[in-house]
User: Fold this.
Amino acid sequence: MDLATILGIVGGIALVVFGMLSGGSISAFIDPPSMLITFGGAIMATLASFRLDQILTSIQVLKVAFFSKGPDYEYTIRTLVGLAERARREGLLALDEEVSTLEDEFLKRGVQLVVDGVDPELTRNILETELSFIEERHGVGIGIFDTIAGLGPSFGLLGTVIGLIRMLGQLNDPSSIGPAMALALVTTFYGAFLAYVIATPIANKLKRKDSDESLLKAIEIEGILSIQAGENPRILEQKLYAFLPPKFRKKVQEEREVEEIYGVKEKT
Assistant:
């Protein structure tokens, strides 16, 4: 579960609701026709912008935003180094026993290509093509929420224009101008709420997760090709950690030093 996403969106909604309540009754912000224009219009326009099957996959995309964990780079690197050590000792065919134990499907397919003796250049092409399709699928999910974020304020403005037109038709009754203006502006509020509290944060979170997964897959591709080339496991480890930010590499190094110290103490 991604607590940052949940806390951010729930907290944003709570703050908006608190602001609505602090000035009086929340009923002033509730107008079903304005909701239909803003939320319904944005959803319908998004439906028109994508295929139905792509829209349906947005449910799975939401699960990624709220519940998926970030990639464990260190675990992946240690797994690749372990595979490299065994391949160096026993040969590439020995990795056939390791394939069934791998949970990452992308890594599993890559190692299987190595075991099957596929040419290194073809292995790279296959894995990079699969990665490009993964990124394309992620791009569709991101695009759906980016579209909603862009359309929300537009339909909010459209609802405001409709409300102003109705208000101008009632100028002969000055007492109705204030309430009519308030209702006209409610749609703008709905549009901003949909875009900036819900859709944009989800789209940004999905972009971050897509970037993280692309980095993980790049590490796996480089590790698989290095194993196939028979590189030294220690050199491979340094190469793969070079993909990560210096701050992360420093943290991993500190953890390793602590493990080595405790390991020495246990032996003594």
